[in-house]
Task: inverse folding
């Protein structure tokens, strides 16, 4: 932060004389890139195991914040993968990726929600319109979503379209390589475009911390 050089002001002069001699205080702020990724956090064999685990849990129509299932805002199906002795290795690997990308974001994080295994299928043109993940009034006090992530579980050659698009002044298509951990701030506008052929699987999650200051 720096104080800019101020012009000389004659405080004894009439007010009208000083109207054009104003200055301002500059809050120096480096631009924060709104996206980070790490490739190959899971092997193809591990991804197949994650998909099997995802399907083993109860599946339902994905819901938006207002509680609606299939709608003009979102069409997908998902299950929830909780931490357990069966899934600990998944959480540990993702935690390592979170710590790595957070060297850039430098968010104060203290927890991760249950992982969401998500299916976007061409049978129903799976999609999710533009939205943010951060809730203005979270159910758990002092637990605000800060970092969102999506792990690519499908080979991009097996489906058409269905890109995760991050809007940060321009349209940025997230890395589609299978096994890639894509991360961005939870206040960032993003969407999943309709899948036209095949099926796209992803592993989605959110890390929380105290309210932004």
Result:
């Amino acid at each position: 932060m720096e104080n800019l050089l101020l012009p000389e002001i004659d405080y004894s002069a009439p007010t009208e004389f000083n109207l054009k001699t104003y200055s301002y205080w500059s809050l120096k702020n480096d631009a924060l890139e709104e996206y980070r990724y790490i490739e190959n956090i899971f092997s193809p064999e591990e991804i197949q195991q994650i998909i099997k685990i995802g399907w083993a849990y109860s599946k339902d129509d994905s819901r938006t914040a207002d509680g609606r299932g299939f709608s003009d805002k979102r069409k997908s199906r998902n299950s929830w993968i909780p931490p357990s002795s069966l899934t600990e290795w998944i959480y540990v690997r993702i935690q390592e990726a979170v710590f790595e990308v957070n060297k850039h974001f430098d968010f104060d994080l203290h927890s991760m929600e249950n992982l969401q295994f998500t299916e976007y299928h061409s049978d129903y043109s799976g999609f999710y319109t533009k939205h943010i993940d951060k809730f203005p009034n979270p159910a758990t006090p002092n637990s605000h979503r800060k970092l969102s992530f999506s792990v690519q579980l499908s080979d991009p050659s097996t489906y058409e379209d269905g890109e995760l698009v991050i809007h940060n002044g321009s349209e940025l298509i997230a890395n589609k390589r299978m096994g890639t951990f894509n991360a961005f701030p939870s206040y960032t506008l993003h969407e999943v475009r309709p899948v036209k052929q095949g099926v796209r699987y992803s592993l989605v999650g959110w890390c929380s911390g105290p309210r932004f200051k």
